[in-house]
Write a structure and sequence with these properties.
Layout (H helix, E strand, L loop, with lengths): L1 H7 E5 L2 H10 L7 E5 L8 E4 L6 H13 L3 E5 L5 E9 L5 E11 L5 E6 L10 H17 L4 E12 L2 E11 L6 H9 L5 E8 L9 H8 L11 E4 L4 E2 L3 E2 L2 E8 L2 H15 L2
Antiparallel strand pairs: 1-4, 2-3, 2-4, 5-6, 5-8, 6-7, 7-10, 8-9, 10-14, 11-14, 12-13
Length: 273
């Protein structure tokens, strides 16, 4: 795992000057760089870099990272075919419990906006053995440092010269993943449905002010608990004072992956500005 990580990462830097000097010394990779803050905040602390020098907006972005963080990481950007997340609980004795590997849905630049839990024939199944082995190694190292509790490992699949490859450790997060509530709901149903937990930018949507009106507008898309199918809103529609939320969260539930993705398109057609 260490060798895989070192091949991808140029290094960690504690100042803007150090970062710019390292970029100037090396040829720009085929797909550019990504600079990452110490704490990525669902990739909001990431920025793609295309050249060997920072332009002014990029420089301001990195400076803003250093205002909150001690250092940043620079690594080669790799096009992804599939984004994965491994979650588990590390008990006080170093044991791994409740391990799950699921697909996450990110923007082209790697920012999280959804998680997919599929009952059978999952895209993640092919990589589960490697991901589980990675979790075992990570758990051993964390336990040696005295950590126990929730763990999340982010990884992705890319196409190499001889086929698809898994980069097994992209980010290590010693806390619960944002998708854990949806995972627990999916497990409660024993994986009998496909569940897509999706976040939308609220300013792009024209939503009704109340739940009753929302359900009416959804019509046949509204969640039916008997059939375990439909759109289930999982965030408040407004904050106190009738202020809009920055994000809207919803569980889209259907028998198959294709059906939940079609449901997402219908939901957006109904409410997107």
């Amino acid at each position: 795992l260490g060798d895989v990580y070192k091949r991808q990462v140029l290094g960690g830097f504690s100042s803007l000057a150090e970062l710019e000097a390292a970029m100037a010394e090396r040829p720009v990779p085929e797909h550019g760089w990504v600079v990452k803050s110490e704490f990525g905040n669902a990739s909001l602390g990431n920025r793609r870099l295309r050249g060997s020098r920072l332009d002014e907006p990029e420089r301001r972005f990195v400076e803003s990272l250093f205002e909150e963080e001690s250092w940043v990481i620079l690594e080669r950007w790799t096009p992804r075919r599939l984004d994965l997340c491994t979650t588990f609980e590390l008990d006080s004795g170093g044991g791994v419990r409740g391990l799950n590997v699921h697909e996450v849905v990110n923007t082209a630049d790697g920012a999280f906006f959804g998680a997919l839990f599929v009952g059978g024939g999952r895209a993640s199944d092919r990589w589960r053995e490697i991901a589980s082995g990675t979790a075992t190694v990570v758990a051993r190292r964390l336990a040696a440092h005295g950590y126990f509790g929730p763990v999340c490992i982010e990884s992705y699949v890319t196409r190499g010269d001889v086929g698809s490859r898994l980069r097994p450790l992209v980010d290590l997060i010693a806390r619960s993943h944002v998708s854990v509530p949806a995972l627990r709901l999916w497990r409660r149903w024993e994986g009998a449905a496909t569940l897509y937990w999706r976040f939308f930018t609220a300013r792009k949507f024209e939503l009704p002010g109340g739940l009753r009106e929302l359900v009416h507008r959804l019509g046949s898309l509204a969640f039916d608990p008997d059939r375990r199918c439909g759109v289930l809103i999982t965030s408040p529609l407004r904050r106190p004072g009738n202020r809009p939320l920055p994000k809207i969260a919803a569980c889209l539930v259907a028998p198959t992956r294709d059906e939940v993705l079609a449901m997402e398109r219908r939901f957006r057609t109904l409410f997107e500005r």
